[in-house]
Amino acid sequence: MTNELRTYLTEQVNALKNAPSCCAEAKAVCAEWLEAAGTDKEAEMTKKLIAEVEADIMPVDGLIAFAGSETGVKVFGEEMAKNVLAHAEEIKKNGAKFCDCPACTACAAIIAKKAEL
User: Fold this and answer.
1) Burial level of 81, CB count in 10 A (0-12/13-18/19+)?
2) How confident is the prediction along the chain (117 residues), in pLDDT tens digits per residue?
3) Are 59 and 108 in contact (CB under 8 A)?
4) What is the spatial distance between Cα 76 and Cα 59, in angstroms, rounded to a whole number?
5) What's the pTM?
6) From its phi and psi, is residue 115 left (phi > 0), alpha (psi between -120 and 50) or beta?
7) Which of 23, 42, 64, 92 has the most CB within a 10 Å radius?
8) Nearest CA among 65, 59, 7, 12 for reference residue 37
9) How far apart are CA 52 and CA 29, in angstroms?
10) Domain segments of the chain: what residues?
């Protein structure tokens, strides 16, 4: 991996790890990747990171379904669920394929470099 690519990935991994919407599993994989960066374990951890972000990124249709569900209302609260649903519908209308929360944005940025990794 080039230094430029490692720097980019480090920035995105830190953004994901620090995102309020990042799940515990992804935070753990991010910490493992950061520890392995620049070592002989980097390639192995990069594969694990890619698998994690691909599993975690929320398709916009999934966000719409979740925000409009009873579970979504329980998680977000009624008012916030309505806001999230409206936002998700709006970004979908504008062409978004994935949620645009900080965690999903970082996941998308990592996935965008997958071929180079």
Assistant:
1) buried
2) 899 999 999 999 999 999 999 999 999 999 999 999 999 999 999 999 999 999 999 999 999 999 999 999 999 999 999 999 999 999 999 999 999 999 999 999 999 999 998
3) no
4) 18
5) 0.89
6) alpha
7) 64
8) 7
9) 7
10) 1-56+101-117, 59-99
